[in-house]
Amino acid sequence: MSVGLQLRNASSQPVFTLDDTTLLQVDFFPVLEGQSVTKSFSFLPAGATISTAIVFVNQPPLDEQFVLPTVSVSGTTVTVTGINSSGSTTVSGTYTIQSGTVYVLVFAK
Amino acid sequence: MSFGLSIKNNSNEFLISDAMRNLHHHTTVTNPTISVPFTTYGGLTRFTYTFTLNSAYIPVPFFTTAFTDRYYAIEKVSQSGNTWTVQLISSSGFPTTTDNGDNPSGGQLTETITGPVYSKAASISASADYIDYSWAFMSDLATLYGSGTVGSLANTSFMLGPEVDNFSNALSVTIPSNASNVTYTNGEEQMDIYIAKYNAESISNRIGTLSKVSSNKMRLTIKAGYSGTIISGSNSFLFGTMGVINYPAIRGSMTVTSSFFSDTFVVNRSTSNSGNWFWGMYNKTFTNGNAFFSGGGLSQASSDRYSVIHTPSSTSSTFTGTAYHTIVWNGVKIVDNVAISVSNGVPNTSYSGGVTDSSDDNLYEIRINSADTEPTSISDGTSSTEVVGSDKYYYHRIKQTSYVSTSGSSGNLATGSYGSVQIPKLIVFADARAVTGSETFGMKVFKDDGTAAFDNRKNPLILKQITSVSHPTDATNTFTGSGLSARNASGPVSTWSTQATPNQYNTITVNTMPSNPMFYYATVTQTHQQVSLTEIENECDGVVVKGNCLGSERDYFWRSTYWNFYRGGILRHDSTTMRAGYIGVEYGAYHSRTTSGSFFGFSTGDSAGSTTGKWAWDSAQINAAGTGVNTLLIGDATNYI
Q: Which helix (H) or strand (E) covers residue B218, if one does?
């Protein structure tokens, strides 16, 4: 980096420069099994681009289809929509289709 | 933003904002509990990490991937109070080689420590060879050539510079003293560039033009046709980072975009047109064998490995001020002239954790000459020192810690034990409120509520790349069921296991990764594959006449369904390639036998057999796409372990 800001630590090693990239944490929240959540982050500065990451809290159970809730981002609003359904096959019979409990991590850059 | 702080990077992305929170290094966990549920069906190893983090925050866990032939993924993140648990799964079982990491089996990322070592090919003590920093500017040339006493220059040395006379004359006569000495052509400030050969009698060839392109850029254009004239023999022009200090008109770097004589070079320039500004570029082979531009006077033979701290304008071991630190490893400047603060001979820099701003992402540690110990001052335990003019150079031994990826298979057996190198490290990040820092200085950014959004002291997360992956629909294309029995789900397991082992993946090309990368990848994609096999067996109690049973008979309908359940994983194939494939996490089979009986053609009813071991749903892939699905973050673990 020839110009701009560079932050160094006590050992004089660069911590941040303007050539770096990171993700800033906006929020995180759990979404329980089959539930839905909507969050608005209107406080974000202009130009912030929201992204999300999802991680399961539990392992898939043996008796249901462990689907993800649907996540949508519109501007500064994140909507997580749970799924409660069922399906059946000739082999397995009827089974539950339900969104599992997840943590939703909301980032911005 | 009406108030507060936002810092964006060169790609217009937020780096720091008081409206959000940076992630900071919370802890690195290296001692998970390890289980190997099975080594069939591709194998599965499960690593369970626990650590403490206030439940008001959430961990963002990254993991290292010791093996290059295994898939990894975060399976789940859960908490109980302030105790968090992260489960990481990996394909395959334990390594076939039992060791402590010193003798790993193939396909692993291994930590290698070399040194401490010291070797330095040549001295820079000859005054004729010395130019401060790796830059050329005319005042230095005057020092070099103005006195006419530089006898060590070979006749093969050239100088390229503006209005340069032969060097036996006083340079002040012909060097432009300020910007007004240049001419203006086509709206551009231009200056002719000449080439002069040392000890040559005259300058006769204008080889190009140095132009002011805009307020902050200079362009060097070299005329065609000079390649044969100027460079001959074994000499070649060497280019590197170039700048001019003390002369504010030109600062920065020159970028060579192609070969010397056929292209355009750009020199960054400050906005000022006033004051003295000089520019020079020349090729010169020093008596110590170092080329000026590549070496700046420091020895860079291919076998050179050393650390050097340069104290400008001082030879005192109790130097106070700004010194410059360079590390040369195998002739390459790994750390290049980094400014460090020194007080009474003691750097305000601790090297106990290694020098991490190296250009090759390896760790380098400075050591004294007699032991594997960090020096306490610039003069403590030096391997050698040199005084050049009024400057001094303090040389030390150096130790390198690097990561090397070996090839081959890492094996798949539930025997033996992992060494520390083979166990994935879990590197946990959390927001600044959850992380403690002990240093007393740095930059801290607060949110409106007075809590920390960024803290320079807490090793904030830097990412190499943010991307996503997608997985193929099936984990394997060999799960046909051929050779498996329809009766009682009796396998054989070896055939089932072989066919069910994942072999499908998508390739994701990424930016060149550091040698010791870390990944955030939480698996959500799941796929289920199954095959059903059927068989009908007829049992006749009477006499079979022309294929017909005369008497009591039964048909046994055998059906066995074998299934495997996979979760998505990522594999670090090489420095620029990731693979998205699968890890087998569950398997099972169930079977049924129904009997259809008849007596002289009249049905006597059905009976059902076992239906155990079912999976909830049939062959399909789920959670394969969508917002936030299969996010892959790549960072450099070296900075956090």
A: strand B217-222
Question: Cβ B627–A71 below 8 Å, yes or no?
Answer: yes
**Would you kindly state where each structural domain of chain B is located, as residue ranges?**
6-109+408-466, 125-297, 303-402, 471-630
Facing residue for A52 by CB, picked from B520, B523, B627: B627
Q: Which of B23, B76, B341 sits opposite A58 (nearest CB)?
A: B76
The secondary structure of residue B210, as a DSSP letter, is E
pLDDT more than 70, % of chain B: 65
Residues of A in contact with B565 (CB under 8 A): 60
Spatial neighbors of A108 by CB under 8 A, at least 6 apart, are A23, A24, A26, A41, A44, A48, A49, A50, A51, B14, B17, B20
Query: Whole-structure pTM over 0.80, yes or no?
Result: no
Query: pLDDT per residue over A16-67, tens digit each?
Result: 888 888 999 999 999 999 999 999 999 998 889 999 999 999 888 878 888 9
Judge contact between A28 and A78, C-beta under 8 A.
no
Nearest by CB: A68 against B431, B629, B631:
B629
Q: How far apart are CA A72 and CA A79, in angstroms?
A: 5
CB pairs < 8 Å spanning A and B: 203
> How far is CA A19 from its chain centroid?
25
Is the CB of residue B148 less than 8 Å from the CB of residue B168? Answer: yes
Residues B213-253: tens digit of each pLDDT: 444 344 555 444 333 222 222 222 322 222 222 222 233 33
Evaluate whether B293 touches B273 at the Cβ level (below 8 Å).
Answer: no
B599 backbone dihedrals φ, ψ, rounded to 5°: -135, 110
Cβ under 8 Å to A: B residues 116-155: none
Q: Is B608's Cβ below 8 Å from some Cβ in A? A: no
Interchain CB distance below 8 Å, B13 and A49: yes
B539–A contact, CB cutoff 8 A: no
3-class DSSP state of B177: coil
Joined together, the tokens standing for residue B449 give 């509520």
B223: contact with A, CB 8 A cutoff: no
Rounded to a whole number, what is the distance in Å from the CA of B2 to chain A's nearest CA?
10
pLDDT, residue B519, reads: 96
CB B470 within 8 A of CB B630: yes
Sign of CA dihedral B229, B230, B231, B235: positive
Hey, are the CB atoms on B76 and A43 less than 8 Å from each other? Answer: no
CB atoms under 10 Å from CB of B81, counted, come to 8
Per-residue pLDDT tens over the stretch B61-106: 999 998 888 999 999 999 999 999 999 999 998 876 655 555 555 5
Using a CB-CB distance cutoff of 8 angstroms, which residues of chain B are in contact with residue A12? 338-341, 347-349
Asked if B84 and B76 count as a contact pair (C-beta separation under 8 A), the reply is no
Would you say the C-alpha torsion B46, B52, B56, B57 has a positive or negative sign? Answer: negative
| Ramachandran angles phi, psi of A11, nearest 5° | -90, 10
Does the beta carbon of B266 lie under 8 angstroms from any beta carbon of chain A? no
Put simply, the answer to whether B466 touches A51 (Cβ < 8 Å) is: yes
pLDDT band at B354 (very low <50, low <70, confident <90, very high): low
Q: B525 CA to chain A: closest CA distance, Å?
A: 9
The answer for residues whose C-beta is within 8 angstroms of residue B102's C-beta and 6 or more apart is B419
B608-628 average pLDDT score: 75
> Cβ contact (<8 Å) for A21 and B9?
yes
* pLDDT above 70 for B157: no
Residue numbers in A near B618 (CB within 8 A): 89, 91-92
Task: Say if the Cβ atoms of A25 and B20 lie within 8 Å.
Answer: yes
Instruction: Report d(CA B563, CA B494) in Å as an integer.
Output: 14
